[in-house]
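hi got a favour to ask and not much time before my train. below you get a single protein, a line of residues and a line of whole numbers that encode the local backbone shape. could you go over both lines and see whether the tokens make sense for that sequence. a few lines back from you is plenty, here it is:
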Amino acid sequence: MFPVLQHLACNEPLLPNLKTLRLLPTAADFIPFILFFVSPRTTHIDIGLDAFNPPKALFASMIAILSILCPRLQHIGLHQLPRDPMITAAVSEFLLATDQNTLRSLCVDSPLTEEAREVISKLPDLRRLTVVTEKDASLPSLVLPSLTHLVIKGDHDGGSLQMFHGAALKKLKSVSFFVSEQIGDFLGAFGRAALALSAQNTLSEFCLYTAPPHRDLLR
């Protein structure tokens, strides 16, 4: 069936009025066909991979074209991505090429380049953000005046809290951390960062998820 769809969509989008594309999960052999479904009217994209060894080069090339085919993206969700420099570079270039004035929600399950981290930390109309932090990576302060929901996935040593120092998060309502099992004084460090932000006046939900074998949830 897919080769037939490929023939039908050789010059024009297969679904020219499609606004939302949600593929969760996406099999590896379906990746080449994703681009046939999006159009300039597509504003919401959620893609998750379902493979232990996905074709990284193929996925990276597909991601690089999305910003061209979908110039008005408001929501970007890229889930279960492999940790690979090729994916990091492709996703970062994709975000840098996306119209920053239209983006409202960003959930990317991949580390980003330093340039991309700087850009996403200062999007004036972004309301939801999920980021992956790496140990020893330079993390900019979050200046996101419209942000209400924040999810951070990364190391447990408190390095991700760098983003709260000097941050401007006037509307932050919910924050979630995904950390390793040994959290140490993470809660105390976050408390001090939140106090510096005066986040106690806006924050209504705090979630802390730890890795297996114990999965704790604190609210």
